[in-house]
């Protein structure tokens, strides 16, 4: 199948040749060589010999002049038939116009697609100058499709003097004719001030009219070609970003592709891509060809790029030095001259007025400025970049933290990202779970907890349990006010609230045994202990029961979700994957240094479910057991932070697609996906809970980080950068602020789009974010004041 653009160009080229030939014959008709009136001698008249010679000489001159003009038009037919460059075509038209009409200035003005403006593409001193399509003589000719020839321009009310004032030129006489193509006016040719100081005559009009016929077809052909080239450049640029996104490229690789694609898309001399850090109120260059500016930061709101980052406004400066927005100080320092600039925002994921990046292009090659089509192409490109960045936003946030840290100390990039990515014991993995034997012998004895006595727990619904239910049925439930025995009983109550034992014929005693067995795997570590496990299970219960998620799930899914939530961090040693790998721990060896902890959590849970006393699947069909077990283990592996953006992207895409993309209760795939979302959101729910609870979890996280930092010193291994120096309140708050802004809010925001009853949790996370922002500013101000003293 032929390319539509190629076909259009072929048709246009053929039409151009045909119309040019028509124009030439048309000119021949205009320039019919006048026959001299025959002399009728009479007896009283004698034709003088010198008179006949003079007449013959005038006739020869006329024929020569007409022949020259015809040759010029024939030359144009040959010259433009193979020329595709728009500006080159217009240059040829103007050059030929000067050969036909003796004028001081000739301009070709082409109407914009919306017919609201005309651009002076070719003129000796006004190239690419834009004028209103309805003003002046040119506007009148374009609107009425009639020629105008006036001897005194300033006495004609249609004449616009402002153009002369802008150019410092005085127009005395002018002739202006419309350019037609495809049955409509596409522009005008205008000649000003005949060189012999006379007014333009009919022959000048006829010459420009004949030229306009050829010019129209040539311009249309060049426009089609230019449009096809632009379209191809835009498609290539977008495709390069799509490929980058689907290949799972890193942020630096993505930014490199975006930068290179913008160069080719806009034909710019220079391109910069800024990432937006709203937490610190600045934009920064992640990747640059010039190492001296890599990591460069600018305040949001300052400069043109900063202004675009502030509100998402597109800024297109045709002439930077005439704009009060432009700061020329950088040009003065570097010696570079910025002529034109196009600066556009990459829209925010949830709020388009809060960009995630800014693309800045400087100096259009081959033209004085960037036009509307450049804006349109860049806008489509930015939307694709947004989709690519959605999957890499976490990494971008971590890169910014690293960039900030590099200004204070030298940090190895890969180690930093690896360790931060595993801050909750997770590291990149796509592997299936492994059922390695449970081998906790590597753990220090003092970190193991003692088992609870099953007989010490009051299972069932006593009056105290009923009172407790009134508490745990709310996100404000203070889990730290309860003993672990009480929490274990409440976990069992979660299953009872959904009547799962009756529905699925689960032996209640076996379920209680499994809950206790899972509890007993959790260690005495500051954060990843049973209180965290209970919290994840509790939030999962509330999301299903009170946020309309249970109606999308089957009883088997709800049962699986509660088990997975409780077991998702079982036997967590309180250190990261990176530490286990660095110290060559037995767990790292068992799992080949690949997603060590999540594979260990999954295999531990799988093993516990095989013990006869914990057999909750005794009455399940083979298919139900297989389904339940798979949902549990996949959900545990789904808490891997390397999959975080998969959760975020999936939730937001479903929300953007509307009701038809809602989770289908009849689809096993949809139900399993929802369970994974529920547990991952619950795992990252601490900053969505009431102040007292969220603050307690924060202290425990920081304590665990500090504990690992000390262990790293003792083990003489590389220290995790963000776990050091947490006694510094400013650094601690910045770490939490980045985590809430870059990780928690995008995730819970997507969940709330699908399940509006989660809005309160998002509001709470926003309150915490604002609080951290104030604290960071406060600590920064205090630090500045101290340094000044």
Give me the secondary-structure topology.
Layout (H helix, E strand, L loop, with lengths): L3 H27 L18 H32 L5 H15 L2 E9 L5 E6 L6 E4 L3 H9 L3 E3 L10 H7 L6 E8 L2 E11 L7 H45 L4 H16 L1 E10 L4 E4 L11 E3 L3 H9 L3 E3 L11 H6 L6 E6 L10 E8 L7 H19 L2 H14 L6 H9 L41 H10 L11 H14 L2 H5 L3 H14 L8 H17 L8 H13 L9 H6 L3 H5 L5 H13 L13 H16 L6 H14 L10 H16 L7 H24 L14 H26 L4 H30 L1
Antiparallel strand pairs: 1-2, 1-6, 2-3, 4-5, 5-6, 7-8, 7-12, 8-9, 10-11, 11-12
Helix pairs in contact: 1-2, 1-6, 2-3, 2-6, 3-6, 6-7, 6-10, 7-10, 11-12, 11-26, 14-17, 17-18, 17-24, 18-22, 18-24, 21-22, 22-24, 23-26, 26-27
Summarize, please.
With 789 residues, the protein is an alpha+beta fold. The chain has helices spanning 4-30, 49-80, 86-100, 136-144, 161-167, 202-246, 251-266, 303-311, 329-334, 372-390, 393-406, 413-421, 463-472, 484-497, 500-504, 508-521, 530-546, 555-567, 577-582, 586-590, 596-608, 622-637, 644-657, 668-683, 691-714, 729-754, 759-788, and strands at residues 103-111, 117-122, 129-132, 148-150, 174-181, 184-194, 268-277, 282-285, 297-299, 315-317, 341-346, 357-364.
3D architecture notes:
The protein has 789 residues and is α+β, with helices and mostly antiparallel strands. It folds into three domains: 4-39 and 54-227, Beta-Lactamase (2-Layer Sandwich), CATH 3.30.450.40; 249-385, 2-Layer Sandwich (Beta-Lactamase), CATH 3.30.450; 418-430 and 438-784, 3'5'-cyclic nucleotide phosphodiesterase, catalytic domain (Catalytic domain of cyclic nucleotide phosphodiesterase 4b2b, Orthogonal Bundle), CATH 1.10.1300.10. Helices cover 55% and strands 10% of the residues. The chain has 27 helices and twelve strands. The strands form two sheets. A six-stranded antiparallel beta sheet has the order 3-2-1-6-5-4. A six-stranded antiparallel beta sheet has the order 9-8-7-12-11-10, with helices on both faces. A hairpin with a 4-residue loop joins strand 7 and strand 8. Helix 18 packs across helix 22 (622-637) and helix 23 packs parallel to helix 26. The two termini are 76 Å apart. Residues 4-38, 43-47 and 407-448 have low confidence and may be disordered.
């Amino acid at each position: 199948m032929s390319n539509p653009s190629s076909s259009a160009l072929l048709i246009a080229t053929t039409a151009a040749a045909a119309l040019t030939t028509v124009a030439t014959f048309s000119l021949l008709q205009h320039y019919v060589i006048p026959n001299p009136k025959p002399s009728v001698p009479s007896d009283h008249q004698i034709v003088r010999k010198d008179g006949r010679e003079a007449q013959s000489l005038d006739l020869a001159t006329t024929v020569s002049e007409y022949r020259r003009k015809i040759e010029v038009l024939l030359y144009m037919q040959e010259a433009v038939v193979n020329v595709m460059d728009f500006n080159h075509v217009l240059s040829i038209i103007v050059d030929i116009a000067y050969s036909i009409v003796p004028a001081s200035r000739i301009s070709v003005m082409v109407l914009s697609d919306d017919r609201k403006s005309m651009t002076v593409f070719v003129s000796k001193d006004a190239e690419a100058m834009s004028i209103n399509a309805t003003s002046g003589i040119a506007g009148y000719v374009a609107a009425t499709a009639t020629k105008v020839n006036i001897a005194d321009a300033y006495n004609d009310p249609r004449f616009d003097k402002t153009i002369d004032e802008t150019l410092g030129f005085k127009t005395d006489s002018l002739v202006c004719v419309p350019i037609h193509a495809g049955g409509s006016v596409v522009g005008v040719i205008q000649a000003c001030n005949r060189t012999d100081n006379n007014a333009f005559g009919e022959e000048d009009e006829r010459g420009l009219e004949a030229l306009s016929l050829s010019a129209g077809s040539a311009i249309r052909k060049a426009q089609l070609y230019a449009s096809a080239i632009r379209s191809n450049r835009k498609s290539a640029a977008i495709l390069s970003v799509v490929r980058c996104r689907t290949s799972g490229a890193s942020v630096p690789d993505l930014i490199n592709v975006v930068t290179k694609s913008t160069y080719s898309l806009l034909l710019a001399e220079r391109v910069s891509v800024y990432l937006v850090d709203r937490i610190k109120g600045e934009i920064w260059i992640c990747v640059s060809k010039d190492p001296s500016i890599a990591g460069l930061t600018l305040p949001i709101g300052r400069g043109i790029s900063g202004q675009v980052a502030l509100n998402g406004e597109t800024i297109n400066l045709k002439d930077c030095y005439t704009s009060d927005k432009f700061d020329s100080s950088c040009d003065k320092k570097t010696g570079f001259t910025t002529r034109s600039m196009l600066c556009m925002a990459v829209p925010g994921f949830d709020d388009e007025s809060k960009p995630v990046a800014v693309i800045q292009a400087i100096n259009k090659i081959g033209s004085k400025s960037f036009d509307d089509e450049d804006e349109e192409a860049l806008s489509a490109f930015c939307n694709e970049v947004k989709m690519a960045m959605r999957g890499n936003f976490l990494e971008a946030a971590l890169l910014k933290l690293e960039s900030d840290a590099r200004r204070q100390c030298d940090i190895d990039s890969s180690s930093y990202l690896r360790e931060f990515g595993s801050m909750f014991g997770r590291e990149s993995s796509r592997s299936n779970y492994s059922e390695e034997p449970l081998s906790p012998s590597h753990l220090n004895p003092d970190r193991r907890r003692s088992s609870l006595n099953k007989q010490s727990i009051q299972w069932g619904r006593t009056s105290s349990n009923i009172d407790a239910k009134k508490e745990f049925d709310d996100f404000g439930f203070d889990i730290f006010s309860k003993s672990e025995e009480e929490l274990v009983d409440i976990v069992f109550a979660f299953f009872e609230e959904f009547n799962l034992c009756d529905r699925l014929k689960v032996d209640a005693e076996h379920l209680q045994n499994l809950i206790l067995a899972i509890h007993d795997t959790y260690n005495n570590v500051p954060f990843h202990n049973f209180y965290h496990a209970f919290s994840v299970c509790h939030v999962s219960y509330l999301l299903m029961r009170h946020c309309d998620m249970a109606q999308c799930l089957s009883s088997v899914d709800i049962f699986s979700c509660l088990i997975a939530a409780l077991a998702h961090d079982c036997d967590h040693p309180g250190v990261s994957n990176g530490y286990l790998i660095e110290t060559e721990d037995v767990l790292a060896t068992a799992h080949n240094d690949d997603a060590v902890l999540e594979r260990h959590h999954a295999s531990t849970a799988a093993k516990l479910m095989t013990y006869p006393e914990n057999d909750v699947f005794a009455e399940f069909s083979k298919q139900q057991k297989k389904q339940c077990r798979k949902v549990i283990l996949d959900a545990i592996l789904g808490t891997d932070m390397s999959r975080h953006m998969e959760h975020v992207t999936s939730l937001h895409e479903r929300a953007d697609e509307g009701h038809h993309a809602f989770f289908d209760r009849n689809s096993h795939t949809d139900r399993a996906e929802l369970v994974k979302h529920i547990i991952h959101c619950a795992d990252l729910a601490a900053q969505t809970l009431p102040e007292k609870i969220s603050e307690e979890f924060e202290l425990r996280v920081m304590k665990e980080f500090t504990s690992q930092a000390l262990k790293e010193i003792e083990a003489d291994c590389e220290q995790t950068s963000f776990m050091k120096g947490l006694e510094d309140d400013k650094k601690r708050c910045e770490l939490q602020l980045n985590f809430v802004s870059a990780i928690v809010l995008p995730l819970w925001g997507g969940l709330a789009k699908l399940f509006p009853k989660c809005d309160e949790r998002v509001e709470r996370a926003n309150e915490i974010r604002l609080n951290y922002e104030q604290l960071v500013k406060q600590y920064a101000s205090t630090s500045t004041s101290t340094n000044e003293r």
